[in-house]
From TrEMBL:
Residues 8-133 form the Phosphotyrosine protein phosphatase I domain. SMART domains: LMWPc. PANTHER family: ARSENATE REDUCTASE. This is Arsenate reductase ArsC. The keyword Repressor does not apply. Pfam families: LMWPc (PF01451). Gene3D superfamilies: 3.40.50.2300. Keywords: Arsenical resistance.
C-alpha cells in the first residue's frame, strides 16, 4: 500500500470542469483505487456538472452526481505531479518540473448522452494508458 506522500497526483483541467475533466478524474479514482490522487478543475467553472456527462458515467458504473465544478488554482497545479489539460488553452498555469499533457477531446457541453459516450470511452482508454505509466510498480 502506498502512503499519501508516495502517491502520484494528477490534475485534469478543462474550461468549465463540467465534463471532460470530471470524467477523467472519476475514471482515474475508480480505476486506481488509492494508488493515484485525482483532482479536476476549470479555468471558468460552470455551476453544475453536465447532466449528460453524469448520465454517461452512471452507465459506466461511476456516480459523479455529487461532484461540483471547481476553480483552477495555482496551488492545485503546484500540488500535482502531472497536469492534463483538455481544451483550456493558455489559461492553465505552467510550473517548471511538472509533467504536462494536452488531451484534445471534443467538448461535451450542450451535447446529449449519445454524443458524450464516445468522449467518455476515449477518456477511459487514455486513463488506462496513463495508469500504466504512472502507477507505482507492482500495484497495477
Amino acid at each position: 500500500m502506498t502512503t499519501p506522500a508516495e502517491r502520484p497526483s494528477v490534475l485534469f483541467v478543462c474550461v468549465h470542469n463540467a465534463g471532460r475533466s470530471q470524467m477523467a478524474a472519476a475514471f482515474l479514482t475508480h480505476l486506481s483505487g488509492d494508488r493515484v490522487q485525482a483532482r479536476s478543475a476549470g479555468s471558468a467553472p460552470a455551476d453544475t456538472v453536465n447532466p449528460a456527462v453524469v448520465e454517461a458515467m452512471s452507465e459506466a458504473g461511476i456516480d459523479i452526481s455529487a461532484e461540483i465544478p471547481k476553480v483552477l488554482t495555482t496551488e492545485a497545479v503546484q500540488a500535482s505531479d502531472v497536469v492534463i489539460t483538455m481544451g483550456c488553452g493558455d489559461t492553465c498555469p505552467v510550473f517548471p518540473g511538472k509533467r504536462y499533457l494536452d488531451w484534445e477531446l471534443p467538448d461535451p457541453a450542450g451535447q446529449g448522452v449519445d454524443a458524450v459516450r464516445p468522449i467518455r470511452d476515449e477518456i477511459e482508454k487514455r486513463i488506462r494508458g496513463l495508469l500504466d505509466e504512472i502507477s507505482p510498480a507492482g500495484l497495477v
